[in-house]
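REQUEST ID: PR-0412
SUBMITTED BY: lab tech R.K.
PRIORITY: routine
TASK: structure prediction, single protein chain
INPUT:
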Amino acid sequence: MRDTAEDPQAEGTEPVAEAGPAGGGPVALALRSGGEAVRRRFRAGELGSFPVVLVLATVWIIFQSLNANFLSPRNLSNISVDIVGTGMIAVGIVFVLLLGELDLSVGSISGLAAAIFAVLNVNNGVPEWIALVAAVLAGTAAGAVQGYSCAKTRVPAFVLTLAGLLTWNGLMLAVLGTSGTVNLDENGLVAELTTYYFTNDAVAYGLAAVCAGAVFTISYLDRRRRVAAGMPHRSMRYIGVRTGALAATAFVSAYLLNRFQGLPLALLIFLVVVAGLDIVLRHTRYGRQVYALGGGVEAARRASLNVTGIRTAVLAVSGTMAAIGGLFLASRITSVSQNSGSGLLLLNAIAAAVIGGTSLFGGRGTTWTAVLGMLVIQSISSGMAITDTPTAVQFVITGGVLFAAVLIDALARRSQEAHGRA
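STATUS: complete
OUTPUT:
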């Protein structure tokens, strides 16, 4: 049983030894050592986020060449808000995929949570914040029930959550009643989740600076811990160049967002949630247990891990994130209807997690993979919309990207087995 959370290679972050006294400046040395690490990772099947970043760049280049408005501040700002609802759900899916399982009920749970909020607040006059908490807790409870049932019966999660898909959808219809559709207050708390923007430029730039500083600090502390333990570690040059590249991306993004309406509140909440859950997964005992369980159930049992508790908690996280995502989706259209949580929502959430790089075999992936995957899916959708491309073509392209992601995952898994790392 391999603890993926503590394995730098499993995180897609191959350790880089300190650069020697070879010629070239610090940047050249960092790039050289980084290039060697990338080649080692690729040979061992550890592709990291490289494939999805390449796909995202290709999608942006193609659509920008077809329509100059694709990378405009307005369109990029809209994409940053549109990814949040389904992206929240995809982050919960990542937790389940890390166990090598699949949650098919997240769409229905998102619709149920939105319906509970709407009926409590609009139809019964319950204050928004109370209705919001009740809706999120309903999602948590639904996920926990499913997780506990899976752990105790040892029935595959996709089978039990398929039953949950029907159950929670039926309960949503019952909650909505004969009205079918409930319109939310356009000036209310939930509506403002996707309509509020921080118009002060300093907010977006400040967030970019905080993100860059956090990446450097975490990388530096991880390096210092590994040096003290005599473990392989990255060079400071590599960390500096990597942080600089991320900082440049963050500040360019902040600049573009400020050219439209500023930093969207929805995007800020999304990034905070993703970062927080990433810390939970990779830097806490619970997160290490999730990765360990994904690496092998029997091995986890023999290591005296609380398999029932971990499975219950993971499905509870999935249900919670589905409920939060459902509220953001309802905020985007300021209404809840009998179609909430249906359609392509479930498929897009799963596709986002897989396309982003979370392994279907369990034990490999981070919450950030859901963000990358969602960016790919929403970029394709937005590009198709502004170029007036038929929806059928969008499905074909998205399906093709998903197929490629699954194929890459399978080939990477085979390569890791050949190198004794799976």
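NOTES: The longest strand covers residues 181-183.
REVIEWED BY: pending
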